[in-house]
Write the C-alpha cells for this entry.
Amino acid sequence: MKHNLSFYIVSAGICITAYSGTVNADEAALIPELPSAASTYTRSAPFIAPRPYIIALNESNASSKQAEMAVNKAAEFEPPLFSGSNAHKYLGLGTVLFAGLTALTAPEEECETNCPPVQPPRQTSGTSHTRFARTAAALAAATVTTGLLYHWNDFHLEDGFSDPDNQHALLGATGALLMLYAVNKSAKSTVPTSHAGIAELGGVAMAVAIKITW
C-alpha cells in the first residue's frame, strides 16, 4: 500500500511539472517581443522615414525657407523716393539747371566792363534773368543746408581734400557762396556791375561737386 501511495505521489508531481511548463510556454507566446533600438531605426514602412530623419529634414526645410524669405525681402526693398539725401541731390540738380537758365537769359546789351560813365538805370527785377538767378541762389542755399543736415558725418577734415566727400562739400559750399554773392551784388546795384563771371564760376563749382559723388 505504501508503494502504491508513493507511485501516485511521484506520478502527480510529474503531471504538475509538465502542466506548469506548458502554461509558461503559452504565456511567453502571448507576450509580444519588445522592439529593440535597432528595429526602431531599421524597421519602417517603405515610404516613411524614421522619426529622427524626419525632424532633421523639417528643420532643414524651415531654415531654407527662412533664408529664402530673407533674400526675397532684401530684393524687394527699395529706398524711399523722397528722403533727406534725395532732397539734397534734387536741389543740387535744380541749382545747376537754373544757373544755366540764368546764363542763357542774361541781357546782351548790359555792360559789365569798360562801361561809359553815364548808363541808364538797370532793371533788377521782373526779367526772366533775374527770376532764374534768384531761384538758382535760393536752391543753392537749400542744397548746402540739406547737405549739412543729412551728410554732416561724411565730412572729415582729417581725410584731407583728396577725399571725394570733402571735395563735394567744399566745392558745393564754395559754389553756393559765389552764386549768392553774385546775385546780391547785382540786385543792389542800379548801374551795370560785373557779376556774371562770379556767378558762372559758382555754377561750375556746384556742377563739379555733383559730378564727384554722382
In short: The chain has seven helices and no strands. Residues 110 and 186 are 12 Å apart (CA to CA). Residues 23-31, 37-47 have pLDDT under 50 and may be disordered. Residues 84-107+122-212 form one domain.
